[in-house]
Amino acid sequence: xxxxxxxxxxxxxxxxxxxxxxxxxxxxxxxxxxxxxxxxxxxxxxxxxxxxxxxxxxxxxxxxxxxxxxxxxxxxxxxxxxxxxxxxxxxxxxxxxxxxxxxxxxxxxx
Length: 110
Description:
Layout: E1 28-32, E2 36-43, E3 48-52, E4 57-64, E5 66-71, E6 74-79, E7 83-86, E8 92-96, E9 100-107
Antiparallel strand pairs: 1-2, 2-9, 3-8, 4-7, 4-9, 5-6, 5-8
């Protein structure tokens, strides 16, 4: 398992391990395995990830701010502390309604 600088059983603040970058979306992968990936991703105000479809379910957890997650054309507004699961093969777009940070957990089927 690659842990990208994070030791097992080491406590860290996920909202503090990566900072906002003006006019950008940045990705910091915490765990990358063949079966799963966990990343912390800050979006600056007005930024959006391009529409995508992946063959895996993805858990999105908003840790700071507010985001719009569009799944198969349905808009969901999520605030700090809220989560949504994007089903495998679902069309999705993620937009910043304000600056926000999220944890993305991709769960690959075996």
